[in-house]
Amino acid sequence: MNTLAVRSTVELDELITAVRGAVAREAGWRDTASYVAEALHEHLPPPELLTAGPLVGERGTSSSHRLHVEPDGSFSMVAIVWRPGALTRVHDHVTWCVFGVLAGVEHEDLYELSEDGTTLTEVGSKANRTGEVSGFAPPGDIHRVRNISDDTAISLHIYGTDLRRVGSSVRRFYDLPTEATK
């Protein structure tokens, strides 16, 4: 993950302050994700927050750029640039996550794990568009993210942990057979 220089820190500073306030409410993960989503919705920065360098890349790839890690380790902010055709593996997370789309469309496929842990069922799909904010908390956060458009998408993700310390927001990758919802 790259550390990213941003064009303007005013918007980012306002967002960091708002997220600090949301996290300081010391609620459970689902409520914290909701509070952080409210803060991100109110302070969603423009895509011009990023310099031009991170936007360049190969079709089918994505790149993550660390924007901020709270000194006490309570949250990290990452900008993800999704180039056309980019696709993640099916995964879940180590903690709550909130994301807002700064540009483009981030497609998300949602899954449930069978009780015996051997199969995934696709339970939904949604297109998260510019300006939209969403969040979730484990358990029940199994998903895959992709960019199926011809335009680059940019999203800002806030995770409830110090990503420098844990290395990744992903808890587990799921390479299991997938069934469609019946």
Task: Give the domain tally.
Answer: 1
Alpha-beta content class: alpha+beta
Average pLDDT level? 89
CATH architecture: Sandwich
* Largest sheet: number of strands, sense, barrel closure: 6 strands, mixed
Beta-strand segment tally: 12
Query: How do the strands of the widest beta sheet line up side by side?
Result: 1-2-3-10-5-8
Tell me the name of the CATH homologous superfamily. Jelly Rolls
The CATH topology is given as Jelly Rolls
Shape category? globular
Terminal CA distance reads: 38 Å
CATH class, named: Mainly Beta
The percent range for helix content is 10-25%
Order of helices and strands: EHHEEEEEEEEEHEE
Low-confidence stretches: none
Per DSSP, what share of the residues sits in E-state strands of 2 or more residues? 35-45%
Helical run tally: 3
Taking all Cα atoms into account, the compactness measure Rg is 16 Å
Keywords: Dioxygenase, Iron, Metal-binding, Oxidoreductase, Thioether bond
GO molecular function: ferrous iron binding; oxidoreductase activity, acting on single donors with incorporation of molecular oxygen, incorporation of two atoms of oxygen
Protein name: Cysteine dioxygenase
InterPro entries: CDO_1, RmlC-like_jellyroll, RmlC_Cupin_sf
